[in-house]
Give the backbone structure.
Amino acid sequence: MPKVATPARIVALLAPVFSAVSAIGLAWLARHFPGLPRPSASELLALEVTGATSAAGAALKWLHGQSAWERDQARFAHEESLYEPQVARGVHLAEAADPGLEHAVVAEGETLLTSAVGEPAAQEIETVAEQVVTVARTAYGCKLITGDHPRDQLVARAHAATLALLPDVGSSDKQTMGEYDQRLMAAAKKNGIVDAPNALAAAIYSRTDFSIVCTSLLMESYGGRNMWGGDPAGDALPSNLFEQDVTPAGWEEYWANVKRGLRTNGCGPGQLTSEGLQAAANSIGGCWLPGPNMKVAAIFMRQLLAETGGDITLAYQHYNGSGPAAVAYGQRAYAIEANLKRTYMGAR
């Protein structure tokens, strides 16, 4: 295959020529221009070396800069190839939430930039932006009441069934972890699960597929961080703790506020939101602890799946709420769970 004559290759090939011409030129000037001091042999050699070194140094400096530029361009192209599918996926999710949303947002943005719009237009843009953010961001737990009565009744049944099972679901998670379990946990960690041992224990305890448990953690808490939600609809949690780590002290302050009648916030890796689910996690060890928190979240999702006939998309859709954003949430969860299931099956 013939080599391409790139600028860097040409400069590298011509660098010795530049050095030779520079050395010869300096020597020629020193010998032939009248008025210039006549150099000795050693001085002439020094001039030639200086000229050659200067020319070679300039060529090497250019080659170094060119090499760095080409390396950066290759890195940028590589990073673009990595993020391009994620960007495309985000656009796809936005379109799923509201067909034509991407073009609508662009159109509204152009309108804002070219003219001063009134308050109604600004509010409409904020609503559209919130839909996009709702699809893209980590969620804040399951709201029991949304105003969608069929959905709210289904979630209420799953919620009641979860509370009825606790705290006597079982203790099978006490079993010794085998080699297959170790491979599962390693695969889960590679796929973004922060606390794979507690996630697997929750799956065993609740008799829920590990892929389901992990999907919930990825959707709700960045893979299972023991964190507070950031939903401003709740007021029991001080705002400075939004999306911060859950601590015993923070939990005590929060739970005291709940008992005083303030509204709940999402808590822990399972983002348990209702007072009932949080109390259930307390009954098996503590809602502020990742293990009990994940177990209750897993049981609740199992009950939602039972209510939807095993329909993963619909179960997660109802978990998230109602409307286009919830539909997109369900679709995203389905895709994540299918990928995790294939990955975990490969760990066998």
